[in-house]
What does this fold into?
Amino acid sequence: MNPGPLRAMNPDPHPNQGLTHFDAHGQAHMVDVGGKSTTHRIAVAEGRIVMQPATLAIIQSGTAKKGDVLGIARVAGIMAAKQTSNLIPLCHPLALTRVAVDFELLPAEHAVRCEATVELHGKTGVEMEALTAVQISLLTIYDMCKAVDKGMVMEGVRVLEKHGGKSGSFVAA
It folds into this structure.
């Protein structure tokens, strides 16, 4: 196919500084994973939401007007991981084999920590699914508690671990 005069071939072997979601012409595209090997892939992500002490007490006691905050946030996170490719345009739709969302109450910090673990046997990683699960879980906590605390802050959303695939393993420091 002729790239045409406006899309001349770029002689730079790394025209996008290693960004994989752009072709040699700088156009967005879904990465071709067809040639990759199927491997067991795992990603773990975390984040937290900081709130007023009284808000954390409501969550801990289970007396929120909208119901079981952490139970609903867990289901929201699991559902979000399964929908990542519908939310983030260039993500591949994946057949996830496991999504686990766990919470830790941090009373000294007036916070709830969320950790999501996502797994599959496939050709691409699941970091985006784990990050999406964490973020949507935290947003659900915000939504369920905003009537009593509009000043909650979500922070520290990041990948903790990644295993499988060509790049091997990654564990955050």
